Amino acid sequence: MADKEMVRGLLQGAFDTHVHSGPDVLPRRFTDIDLAGIAQERGFGGFVLKSHHAPTADRANLIRSMFPGVNVYGAIALNNPVGGLNPVAIDVAGRLGAKVVWLPTMDSANEQANVAGQLDESKLPYWMSIARELREQGIAGRWLTVTDGNGNVLPEMQQCLDVMAKYDMVMATGHIAPPELEPVIKAAKQAGVQRIIVTHPEFPTTHLDIDAQKNLQKYDVYFERCFTTPFTAKCSWEETLGNIREVGPSSTIIATDLGQTINPALTEGFEIFIDKMIEFGLSDQEIKQITQHNAASLLGAE
Fold first, then answer.
1. Containing H/E element for 35?
2. Bridge-partner residues for 47, per DSSP?
3. Which residues on neighbouring strands pair with residue 223, listed in sequence order?
4. Which CATH number among 3.10.129.10, 3.20.20.140, 3.90.1150.10, 3.40.190.170 corresponds to the domain 4-299?
5. Dihedral through CA 292, CA 13, CA 36, CA 59, nearest 10?
6. pLDDT at 130
7. Is the entire prediction scored with pTM above 0.85?
8. pLDDT band of 22, cuts 50, 70, 90
9. Would you state the torsion angle of the CA atoms of residues 235, 30, 68, 267, taken in this order, to the nearest 10 degrees?
């Protein structure tokens, strides 16, 4: 294990681009206020509030007013609670200052197809209990895709991309199917979306091998490696760290994806990830690029 002071030093200025805090419709380990206090105390660069169910821009605005100098960013995930591929919801979020738009996550057809047959509750996503309740009530909505199956972006998805470009928002790919990635990324670039995150490419339902990741580099995307993916054994640390090396630190950001009550605290997750990168042989400069500079550029914080 690396020296604790070294790890803590590298944590200063870090951004978490994907964190699940409360209030939320699911129990969370910490609140937005807790996060802001930690960021202030530990010198974090900032964080993006992620919810599968509700927009978070209003929460982010409130936290910024309570903690001046702390960079807190709101977001929206295009799931059924906000109307799915809904350009109006994105426009309202943009007016409120939301920075990140996730394509469908829990309600993506890809995600649902991959978890629908699982009977082992311990292996189901954290949000599946609500999805099952809604399905039992007959109000779950439809499972969402962003392309028509022939590689063409759906008209409603195109409208969403146009609104993202209007407000200079970051598009994150969420849990869409891997074959949908290149068509929607290409369409996003053509629509004027300047900044794109490929969401946790080591995660089982969104998994991309290294050749697929390298193919997407031509679009100047960032690959978001999430702490919880290897920590919960959804992939190995070797795969995650090896992909960072293969794709390169300049194309990588890291996030915790934390907030679940059974998982570690935010700082612990970040420190473990940084320690793993040191152990793997990444230099201080490379780690700072991954944890600080890339995310700051992505979020417009530089």
1. helix 32-42
2. 16, 72
3. 198, 252
4. 3.20.20.140
5. -30
6. 82
7. yes
8. very high
9. -40
